[in-house]
Amino acid sequence: MSPIRRRIADRLVEAQNTAALVTTFNQIDMSAVASLRSAHQEAFQKKYNVKLGLMSFFVKAAVEALKRIPEINAEIRGETIAYRNYYDIGIAIGGGRGLVVPVLRNAESLSFAEIEKRIIDFAERSQDNRIRIDELQGGTFTISNGGIYGSLLSTPIVNPPQSGVLGLHVIEDRAVVRGGQIVVRPMMYIALTYDHRIVDGREGVTFLKHVKELIEDPARILLEI
Questions:
Q1: Is 128 among the residues known to form the active site?
Q2: Is 223 within a domain?
Q3: Structurally, how many domains does the chain consist of?
Q4: What confidence tens digit (pLDDT) does each residue in 143-158 have?
Q5: Catalytic residue status for 210
Q6: Domain holding 71: CATH number?
Q7: SS3 state of residue 187
Q8: Considering only CA atoms, which of 3, 37, 2, 8 is closest in space to residue 160?
Q9: Predicted TM-score (pTM) above 0.85
Q10: Regarding beta strands 164-178 and 141-145, do their DSSP bridges make them parallel or antiparallel, or are they unpaired?
Q11: Which listed residue (40, 200, 210, 217) is catalytic?
């Protein structure tokens, strides 16, 4: 095993052995985000020289949901709980040496374009093993997108000492009921794994539901409501 693979193994086993992990699920209608991206992609890319992807929406939505449920952005230190007033969001990326989770520092202050540019930079440098150690440390919450590999549903594992991880999955057209009618919508399952020692079920479900509401009505992200 390579050093980074051994480190990954140690951290994941630590999470399984020390945390009381629970996973809750929901599904999101991605129609609104798809329409917004289609309408503004050309202008966005022309202005910022980067595509408007999905991850920036989820980073923004996660930050707003973390503000509402601060326990998921906190960590256990001995017999105390340390709450954070900043949001350093780890983005799980498959790199040349395996899975790495570089951190978007102070994600609450980043624009959509800044988030997209930093994620692309992380992805490119991870393929050449050029991610620095300090860029992998100190995250407060993690987002993992298994959907890019075709994953329909999964239960992500918390990256200790964090208390939560959001799992994204593949977008598929599915039959859903809207206004009493069966219609086809682009749907995505999402999963939140959290440490039940610090986060109760009500808070975990509320967090995931708020992410769903923000993605299905992305104007709320800009209004922070």
A1: no
A2: no
A3: 1
A4: 999 999 999 999 999 9
A5: no
A6: 3.30.559.10
A7: strand
A8: 8
A9: yes
A10: parallel
A11: 200
